[in-house]
Amino acid sequence: MSNNIIDTVTQAVNSLVSALKLPDESAKANDTLGSMNFPQFSRILPYKDYDSATGLFINNKTVGFMFEARPLPGADKSIVATLEHLLRSKLPRGVPVSFHLVSSKLVGNDIDYGLREFRWSGKQAKKFNAITQAYYLRAAETKFPLPPDLDLPLTLRNYRVYISCCVPRKKNSTTQIVEMENQIKILRASLGGAYIPTRILDAAGLVELMRELINPDPHEMYRVPYKLDPYQDLNYQCVDDSFDMQVTAGHLKIGRLGRDGKECVTRVTSYHLESDPEMAFLWTAADNYANLLNPELSISCPFVITLTLMVEDQVKTQNEANLKFMDVEKKSKTSYAKYFPNVIKEMQEWGDIRQRLSTNQTSLVSYFFKGFEGQWNENVR
Description:
With 381 residues, the chain is an alpha+beta fold. It has helices spanning 2-21, 26-35, 77-90, 108-114, 125-141, 174-193, 203-214, 234-237, 279-283, 285-290, 314-332, 336-339, 342-358, and strands at residues 49-51, 56-58, 62-69, 97-104, 158-168, 198-200, 244-247, 252-257, 263-272, 303-311, 365-375.
């Protein structure tokens, strides 16, 4: 089998060389190139180009934006009210908006920046500065040293929040571009009102983020600089040349060459909700995110949690609520209510929902949850 592959590649290369040497044989060379079909992971990525004038990513079928927001360690009533108003009245109807919480081990640059004013002095300054730096880097690579009877996943991580949104692209539509520009301004202004500063993610920022997520190196603690090529599509620049992926039933194995030239393998696991949780668990969703900062409940491995929200059309949801209310109201006035008394409570609930929707006090929001977790150990291979 391997000999056949080698023979095929050799024959294709020889055909290319011969075609390029002969005059007017460029068409034959292109045909030969077209017959060589090799799968590329970068082709499934939608990113193509970035317009610095508008801050929008222009792809083949979509147009969208992405910006980074400062993570909040907590919130008060005013911040919650501002974010609630943002979801209810500022987000575009029927358009999914994704919030990504990224936990990374790339804290080396932040450690150097944080320790720049906390340096040792004296003859042994260099030695103790190296020990201090190694202490925090070790906490990011494994975890902070704790007493033997206290086994907690207390690690040092770099937490970042990204917000992304895209819509189907309308070719040569200036109106759509203007609408997306205005949407960026509205979202950033609303988040600024909640004391959440943001910054637009440009082409270099997107490629740097995607390279970090797509080409993980479990041993790397510092950000790897990448020089953006303005003449190449963004999707091809997001994937490392040594990228390799194996698909298994329970996880993905992503292999690549590290900065030291050695091969490293990362196991990536994906989680998603198979069904809606019970009502009691919906009320504790915010607490679950806050628990990530709890040493006993934190996630020790690098991860990405994506929460996608889509505000449903207000008129459509109002009509659905009216139909549902009239249906249960009709049942509550018949003998059906004697055998199923919960229909009275259901009618009251739908009546309240109908009223809140009709007065624009609330909106129906669909949500989608997905999590990715990357692990590394000697048994991954």
